[in-house]
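Sample 1 of the test manifest.
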Amino acid sequence: MAKLDSKIPSGPLADKWRKHKTEIKLVNPANKRKYEIIVVGAGLAGASAAATLAELGYKVKSFVFHDSPRRAHSIAAQGGINAAKNYQNDGDSVYRLFYDTIKGGDYRAREANVHRLAEVSVNIIDQCVAQGVPFAREYGGLLANRSFGGAQVSRTFYARGQTGQQLLLGAYSALSRMVGQGAVELFTNEEMTDLVVVNGQAKGIITRNLVTGELRRWAADAVILATGGYGNVFNLSTYARGSNVTAIWRAYKRGACFGNPCYTQIHPTCIPVTGDYQSKLTLMSESLRNDGRIWVPKRKEDCRKDPASIAEEDRDYYLERMYPSFGNLAPRDIASRAAKRVCDEGRGIGETGLGVYLDFSDAINRLGEPAVRERYGNLFDIYHEITNENAYKTPMRIYPAVHYTMGGLWVDYNLMSNVPGLFVLGEANFSDHGANRLGASALMQGLADGYFVVPYTIGDYLAGQKPGSRPSPDAPEFKEAEANVRAMTQRLLSAKGTQPVSHFHKRLGQIMWNYCGMARTKEGLQKALQELPKLREEFWASVKVPGSADTLNQALENAGRVADFIELGELMCLDALTREESCGGHFREEYQYPDGECKRDDEKFGHVAAWEFQGVGQPPLRNVEPLNYEFVKMSVRNYK
Amino acid sequence: MVAEASNKTISVTLRVWRQAGPNQPGRFVDYTAKDLNTNMSFLELLDVINDDITRGGGEPIAFAHDCREGICGTCSLVIDGKPHGPHRGVASCQTYVRSFEDGAVITVEPFRARPFPVVKDLVTDRAAFDKIQQSGGYISVRTGAAPDANAIAVPKEDAELAMDAAACIGCGACVAACKNASAMLFVAAKVSHLGLVPQGQPERDKRVLAMVNTADALGFGSCTNQYECSAACPKLISHDFIARLNRDYIGATFRTAFTPASANTGGGA
Amino acid sequence: MSLFGNLFRSSVGRKFLMAVTGLVLVGFVTGHLVGNLQIFSHPDKINGYAHFLQSLGPALWAVRLALLAAVGIHIWAAVTLTLESKQARGPEPYGVKKWIRASVASRYMRLTGFVVLAFIAYHLAHFTVGVAGAETFKTQLAEYQMKEDFHLLGFPIVAKGQTVHDVYSMVFLGFANPIVSGFYLLAVALLTVHLLHGFDSLFQTLGWRSAKWSSALRTVTVLYCLAYLAGNLAIPGAILTGLVKPAGGTTAAQRLAAVAPASLAQR
């Protein structure tokens, strides 16, 4: 069994982080350059961590599988970033942001982590503005805010509908500066394919250069994974096509525990699926729910009619009806499930019946089309490009889609996994969002981890490592890991199958969406757990990966990633099956209140499940980290 | 209305540039795809063709793509002679099959420029853009040293204009479209974004000189004011920013030449 | 890089030099045209004006050298930038490449530039050095005697009765030749096309253009180019078609009368 010590500092909630910072060990400036740190991934978390660690004086190597660090999928976040600045004078505070996040996460996150997140949120905004991030401003020149789901204050900072892009470009510029100065060595097109553990500590990685196919061994004093989420296990999601689980999955197979893999966020406002060729679902920012009203027809027979012909009294604004105080701004999991429910009742709209209307006619009448265009113009444009429909004239059609994974590698308060020396940041870890993430909080967490948490906490680990003690990349552990990767590559290339990788990815996605999606049941999950091992075996027997290992081979890249996704799917279903309660993004139909709300079981499941790998096809071990709520009372989430 | 649009199917032939690797000869190869739903995106069309190629025992077409929602800047196709295809203001991934006629023959090529060498088929190496950024595309501010975000007011107009420039996704369509393979729109967008906010002022001169000179050294061509770049830009970044860049560059050239500089720039303790 | 490094080596620096030298040359051709339009006035005007320019001596040479340098830098920058840009485009041409919005004028800058250069060479040989069309060169013609005092900006330049080169007749006689006029017409037309992009570009390169001003600047450019073209077409056009006849008593009037075809004489 893995030892899970969360290392949460003692003392009052609001003092924990401050106290921890003064108590943890430091590395003196002259010694910092003697330590090498590997950072995998250069999204918000990875780029901010790499840049900051290099500023501190560490020798940093940054690895990205993209052709440039600026391509990481953080770039696609549209809506905004939360911070407890209270610039709007509407009663916001660090405590409120903390509380909203804990509550939004359905009481399945660590109090101490979340409070720290809320504390540093204010520094993030300062940092980003200093980097030149062009946040929206008011006419007086001060920063503007908007409101977002799950909060009753306006604390979201934004840069049009491209907040993630602007924050990423800020972090990327900081990283570029360090690369330019030679403090960070940047390796693009370089995919991490294994973690190297020496004497129980993470001391390096194996990478495959995606252009030349070369496998390389890299030794370091510590390894940071900031490789994002794993929502592409569903095949169709709002993730970039390249987003994958491989880095953290291979770390999991080397002993890092996987926390709460079944916590998946389904975003309520995406463009519905149109056909089986589809590769991607596009998100329409949650900010649209500020002014858009969600409805379906009251009667099934109206569903195929032109929405304009359906009279006001025949429309069911179901979020406003079910959640009068939050209305269309109900948290994502609640809004998503409500959409599923009305569609299951047969009242879904569009060809597939899997869609609901997001209607702006009220907002256009109230504010005028130019004002709506100013706020959401680019989103309306995106919608038009994809659907060929004009949302100023006819309501948008939306449906929930997989958007974020709250689960990830288990980390302690220092963001270190149970494998010493392995740090995990951003979406790749499980830490701050509990069972559901609030809108505009992912960007906040990625940057908090990278700019303001790991630069401190990694020192505590490194101070215990003798400078220059890192192993040679020729050590047997490195050679073994490289041979492991080489063998997997060969196995993929030599499979004499007939089906392209996409075939298996689609089938995996269907299984996961049907049985481990918005609503889960014991029977369904059991069925999935029968089907997934079969799919895994079929994959290895009949996948066809053309080309060779020593050139750019996108089929080979995908094959490795999908192989990992299939294994991950089993773990997610197992986690979902074992968690016999409903909470946040994990909804078990057996555990709900009569009105369809999540029924948690704090007694039995008020804990983190951290899974420990025991071999492919072998049941993993379920370790438990109890969640001790010292300051907040776990209660039933109520957004009515 | 919705059902009609998506039930329509067409067939097209893609004439695709195939090149096994850098510095190897390439050629166009035709692939026909039938019964395509017109709501399919252009990249999904390539997916479909690739699956067919794979099933038929061939090697699929390598093409760069990632987010498929027009923001990451990875996709980079020249479709029928235009970077990112026939429509203005979209990336290749936001080009849809509905934009083409039934039976059309569509030529698909990589972005071409010497600083963007072809890696394979339709994939090019655009690391040169990162190098330009590394030469000065930043504000030198250490993490943790920032004043309160509202300490400096930024006029809304400036912030909006900076955002217009900052919308650049770094795809390289400007270079691909320019007959001189000039990177000026990219450099201008970066320089203008940082040059328009007060935080960017201290390094403004240094930045513009470094970034332009780096772009030159990397082998990008020069701007001849034809504005093909801004016409091809998926984010419609205005070539006004190039005018701004020119002004900044010349201003910086004269300012740095005539501004007295301290001989003792070394730090303290 | 230093001041000169940035100006002479960087792409933007050389574009700036092209713009500045272009501006100088636009100024020159404009002044030149305005001076030449005096052909439609009394012969005293253009001959007195020409005499004034000739009498500047070293100053004239300074201006000539400056103009020559401007032309030289303009061409040097154009050639080096073009070669680099060709290099930048890479080894493999596009299979299909379509223009999106580049103006026609902008696509033929090299062609128009070459023709203009050839024309400048010929034009200098013709009217300045006297190599081409030597028999009608001013030094081969009888001196012109001023009918009145000639003033420029109020300054007395040439006194009544003084004899000067007969530029007036030289221009008339030169343009009476249809081949010379034809080449001239073609050249100024192409120069106008060159200016149509060049003049507009100048605002962009010097950083004065912006979306707010672009249509106004474009209008200014187009109006200027039309005026320039009209002015330049007027001189050979009017002479060639006989719409304007040399003033009576000038060498040009005498010689043209002698060779005039019957049809022209009848008008």
